[in-house]
Amino acid sequence: MDSFIVISLIKIFVVFGALLTILAYLQWVERKLIAHIQVRPGPYRVGPHGLLQPLADIIKLITKEDLVPPYVNKTLYLAAPFLAVTMALLSISVIPFGPAIPVFGYHTFMQLTDLNFGVLFILGISSMGVYGIALAGWSSNNKYALLGGLRSSAQMISYELPLSLAIAAPLLISNTLSLRKLVDTQDGWMWNWNLFHGFQYVSFVIFIIAGFAETNRVPFDLPEAENELVAGFHTEYSSMKFALFFMAEYANMITVSCMATLLFLGGWVAPWPAKFGSGYVPVVIFAIAGVVTIWRGLNPRRNRDRYTFAPFGVVFLGVAAVFLVPLTQSALLPLFWFCAKTGAILFLFIWIRGTLPRFRYDQLMGFAWKVLFPVAMLNLMATGLAIAAFS
Amino acid sequence: MDLIVFLVFAGVAVVAAINVVVQRHPISSAVSLIAVMGSLAVLYLLLGAEFIAAAQVIVYAGAVMVLFVFVIMLLNAGGETKAGRSFVASRLGVPVLVALLALLAFFTACIYPHDTQVHFGGFRGGTAEAVGRALFTTYLLPFEITSILILIAIVGAIVLARKELE
User: How does pLDDT run across A281-318, given as a tens digit for each residue?
Assistant: First the structure.
């Protein structure tokens, strides 16, 4: 019992520390990617390639004046950002990153808690997340904020239906509500993933579209459309309270990406079994990166590359070597695949933000009810029939 | 441990439920009602009814109450004004309430003897599988009738909304 509590506490610190760091750096990645899509350098001044920019942003946000306008409903105004960020961060507690691993003699799951209704838990928590935005919009006592909050709650109720229906289809195939068992049913080769089961790519596409709408991302970011609503629901928020909404949005993005990975892409499972050498993929990737950087450092284009590239090459080679050690391999390989898949979906989020324009509001609602919902319904019925016919 | 969690969330549920009535502003009442729903979900979870708990959060706290809050925000309803209380309500309200609670406690104690107390974690039939099996075998007819009832309600809502448009 005591060791359980200690291990859980350690896991909580590790997971939340990693999550908060990723949240801060996801924003840097997004700014850099959008910048490169638009052919400009992006953040460049704070640290090499702007790598310390998130740190500078955090310092700025904390030290900024924390303004509470006199005309707001104080209790709800103060509670809303905390509600939003709590609900966004809670979901990470049931997401599994890998199988059971031995840590100093204890066998523990790479997951904070293994609920046997994990999928329902995440659905419930994410449906509570809308209150943060809706109450922020209402309590601000500002017409733009109110419109943003209204738009957001209508949008999130509407898109929750296709989202849940899209989730139900792979659940029918895997026949479980536990996120851990869901991954276990997709073990082995790539075509065991739910994405490649018959026509499940339809569910995947519906899930991704509805996920974009649930996280208020482009092209569904109507609640914060700056050309119509100033800044939408967080117009009246400043400093750290604004940052909390920002964090909530990114945490929701990570949750949706993790869910897509677990439901459709086989979670931490490699695309092909380890006996055919899937365990050497990260080694090869990091070794190639290391060799290229060292070669660049030895044949520098700029003078300073000699001192910056070579150490990085050595670090990459070191990481490649760590992936070869059997002891660390059992923990790092699943984590590598999980992060690679989740990262690919996060990249998709950012890529689409740099590509697509925003919907008009009636188009957004019409799309949810007239296109996405019927398609999701048909998809679920077809999946059920197919399972009944072939099993 | 279970008992502490039960007491905390039962307390939250009762206080929030009273707050629903006491608050003047509809939004504050709605937020209190969300707190009631959330604490009820925790109580269900303590009793081992995990599917009901999840459904409670997803359906009631996550969908029905969002709609409530949405409508209140859309109508931009202001705070209610204090109505003058009637003589009977102000004098008899509290005594009648206490008497009612006492009666309720008395009858509960009479009907249910001590050995049928609730045991935390004693009930194991609350998983999604068990609920699904019960719904589609034992209670199939009520389940299907309920779905038809909901369909009628949806059609009725659309008819009413169309009438208003004309």
Answer: 888 888 888 888 888 877 777 777 777 787 888 888 88
Query: Does residue A219 have a cis bond before it (omega within 30 degrees)?
Result: yes
Tell me which chain A residues have a C-beta less than 8 angstroms from the C-beta of B76: 146
Q: Which residues pair with A370 in a beta bridge?
A: none
Q: CB of A66 within 8 A of CB of A238?
A: yes
ipTM of the complex: 0.79
Domain ranges of chain A: 60-102+112-269+325-390
Instruction: Give the integer Cα–Cα distance in Å for A83 and A53.
Output: 27
Distance from CA of B76 to the nearest CA of A (A): 9
Residues 6+ apart with CB under 8 A from A252: A88, A126, A129, A214, A215
CATH class of B2-126: mainly alpha
**Domain spans of chain B, in order of start:** 2-126, 127-166
Q: Using one digit for the tens of pLDDT, what is the confidence trace for A134-151? A: 888 888 888 888 888 888
| Contact assignment for B61 to A135 by CB distance below 8 Å | no
Single pTM value for the model: 0.85
* In the block, residue with structure tokens 């009479």: B110
Closest approach of chain A CAs to the CA of B104, in angstroms?
33
DSSP H helical ranges for chain A: 2-37, 53-63, 74-90, 118-139, 143-174, 179-184, 201-214, 226-229, 239-264, 281-298, 305-322, 326-353, 361-366, 373-390
